[in-house]
Amino acid sequence: MRLSSEEALKILNSFIGTTRDDIWITHSKCVGDSAGKIAKALNLDEDYAKALGYIHDIGKKYGWNNYEGVLPHAINGYKYIKELGYDEEYAGICIKHSFLNNDINCLANDRDYTDSSDENYEFIKKYIAKEYSIYDKIICLCDLMCKDHIMTIDKRLNDLLSRHGIYKNSQYHILETNKLKKYFDDMLGYNLYNLFPEIKNNL
Ligand SMILES: [Fe+2]
Q1: Does residue 106 or residue 180 have the better pLDDT?
Q2: Cα of 202 to ligand 1 centre, how many Å?
Q3: How far apart are CA 182 and CA 37, in angstroms?
Q4: Is the pTM of the predicted complex or chain greater than 0.85?
Q5: Domains of the chain (ranges, CATH numbers)
Q6: How far is CA 126 from the centre of its chain?
Q7: CA of 2 to the centre of ligand 1 (A)
Q8: 187 C-alpha vs ligand 1 centroid, how far in Å?
Q9: So what's the pLDDT on residue 105?
């Protein structure tokens, strides 16, 4: 079943006030709106990109603030969207967005990447090895440009690293993030930040 951006936003908004704070909801809106802008600029399906962005972190409805693990929020979101009966790609983005280059080790921080004993570790590892669509890549990039508002990848990475610390794969993650931004700059033929003039206010 297809998920419209309108329906995705309704699902997201239904969790306002149900977790310790709503920052993840504001963040998800930022990711969806930004993804829509990039998709539109590339003559892609704007509504589809927005829907993926709105629901990518939906697994955080299960108490993200109590356990900030990457694997749990990914798998919880995946299962939830499947339970609602939406197509695989909507569930899949809940997992794929955390791993920008198909590699389970490509994370900014080590919060639980080493937890190979996690029951979902092997499933997630295999799942992200699948090819990412252009829409999956857009969401990965927007996740790294949005906190609760749009910013450069440099500022967002700085935010992640200063909050959660630096570890052995942080440099790898930074380099892959830069590569992903360049991939879209090249595809657009101009600097992707031109799509977001408001970014200047958030430097
Ligand atoms: Fe996110």
Answers
A1: 180
A2: 18
A3: 17
A4: yes
A5: 5-202 (1.10.3210)
A6: 18
A7: 21
A8: 23
A9: 83
